[in-house]
Design brief:
- The protein is mainly α and 351 residues long.
- The protein has one domain.
- Helices cover 58% and strands 0% of the residues.
- The longest helix is centred in the middle third of the chain and has 26 residues.
- The structure holds zinc ion (2 copies).
């Protein structure tokens, strides 16, 4: 019995999982408030869990990618904590040891510094994936979702997860190493409690509505500080005016600071999915789990080939040889990378 409980907790009920059952009541209460405000008619539950969304092919791929991600996590593929500890120890060693006087910073400030470092990292990891054509295919898996439910947050390629967790591990390691070397004597209890309380609150309140059809705007003033569910839905829109906007996870200040903020108010009719340079949604590149896992690797590798292909083309022109099919595929992938938001020509900076 205990084993079953432990398995249940590890797979779908761990507090680090945004869709864990104890985070759902908050989402349902807020959704109910939106439902009343929008004066929707009919059943609330059917409105909140529409069959055409929950049984959509795109959502079935989300569920499969979630399962793949959980298996890899349980197998220890994403060792963020280990990276953090290693980097922090390195910095402490380099600085000549930890602080010995009593801590001068309160636990609240310590937690805030770590949260800011984490959220800042998420912003840039996310943005770089949109802007770099070799990385974009791995994040495109998240953006090829045609419908969104709370599970869509786990529609991610394992390589994106790996890069993201490593980057977070490194930045958190630097933050913790600097804190321990120069500012505080001990991080453990206060820090972990503070950070966990913050993320618990985030998960319990609005996080699950980010990937959903429920439009919840915080209003223009608050959306300078916190990313609302509506702002993240805009980030998933395939329309031109929404490209390159709202990369932030919890805080909107990074988008505000770096010029990528898009504010919402009245409900906008959004079409989720990957758009081309004209704002038209492109055909689903990941209709199945296999394509979602393999196509990004092929597309990413193809972006590394054009330079070689050019040289090969010059040689071919001299020798009169026909264009090899591999080169065709590389050119197609490069064109695709140009067309999608975040490709080489358009800068489309989340999650
Ligand atoms: Zn994104
Ligand atoms: Zn998202």
């Amino acid at each position: 019995m205990q084993d079953i409980f432990a398995f249940f907790q590890a797979t779908i009920a761990h507090p680090s999982l945004r869709i864990a059952p104890f985070y759902l009541p908050g989402m349902i209460i807020l959704a109910y408030w939106v439902w009343r405000k929008q004066r929707e008619t009919g059943s609330f539950w059917r409105w909140l869990f529409p069959r055409d969304i929950y049984f959509h092919r795109s959502h079935l791929v989300d569920i499969q990618l979630f399962a793949v991600g959980r298996i890899l996590t349980l197998l220890g593929a994403f060792q963020k904590v280990a990276v953090t500890v290693a980097i922090a120890s390195l910095i402490v060693g380099f600085a000549g040891g930890t602080v010995t006087e009593p801590a001068t910073l309160s636990p609240v400030w310590i937690a805030l510094i770590v949260l800011l470092a984490n959220d800042f990292t998420v912003y840039w990891v996310h943005r770089v994936h949109h802007e770099h054509p070799t990385l974009w295919p791995f994040h495109a898996v998240h953006h090829s979702a045609e419908v969104m439910t709370p599970i869509t947050v786990y529609r991610k390629h394992p390589i994106y997860d790996l890069i993201s967790s490593t980057a977070k591990g490194v930045i958190l390691g630097v933050a913790q190493g600097v804190l321990l070397s120069f500012l505080v004597t001990d991080l453990s209890v206060a820090l972990i409690a503070g950070v966990n309380v913050f993320y618990f609150a985030f998960n319990a309140v609005t996080a699950n509505l980010r990937h959903s059809h429920v439009w919840l705007s915080f209003g223009r003033r608050w959306e300078h500080i916190f990313i609302s569910p509506a702002q993240h839905q805009v980030h998933h829109s395939s329309e031109l005016r929404h490209y390159n906007k709202n990369y932030g996870e919890v805080l909107a200040i990074w988008d505000w600071m770096f010029g990528t903020l898009y504010l919402t108010s009245d409900r906008e009719d959004l079409r989720f999915g990957i758009g081309d340079a004209e704002g038209n949604r492109v055909a689903q590149p990941h209709p199945t789990l296999m394509t979602a896992l393999i196509e990004p690797i092929q597309s990413s590798l193809a972006t590394l080939r054009p330079a070689r292909s050019k040289a090969a083309r010059r040689e071919d022109a001299v020798s009169g040889a026909p264009t090899p099919p591999a080169q065709d595929a590389a050119q197609k992938a490069a064109r695709r990378a140009d067309a999608v938001p975040g490709g080489a020509t358009t800068i489309h900076p989340a999650e």
